[in-house]
Amino acid sequence: MGQAEEFRRPVALVVEDEPLQRMMAVDLVEEAGFDVIEATNADEAILLLETRLDIRVVFTDIDMPGSMDGMMLAAAVRKRWPPIEIIITPGHVRERDLVLPERGVFFPKPYDSERLSRKLVELRLHHRLYQMCF
Predict the structure, then answer these.
(1) Is residue 71 part of a domain?
(2) What is the pTM of this model?
């Protein structure tokens, strides 16, 4: 593996239809050490996931326009791309009202940016260890 590959930042996909919320999420994820790509709904996210093999984290809102919401997207990601980590951020739903996918993580809005950043750094370090093993 070349040196450039060893230091490549993991990629996170931020899925959020509200532009201001998306900008805030992108900033948090980038500050945690990820390269970020963006989608405004689950349909767009699925297209990106089908064409990009480098996505390691999906950070998704629940309430979005389109053919599926964030929970349906999370279920599709877990089924089709099991290694991808999932962070779910609902605006009006409580965690106890949800059935999260395996390894799915819940962060209510407004974000506790410190706690969310710690989780993202943990996921980035996990990705780095995975790269070192393979």
Answers:
(1) yes
(2) 0.85
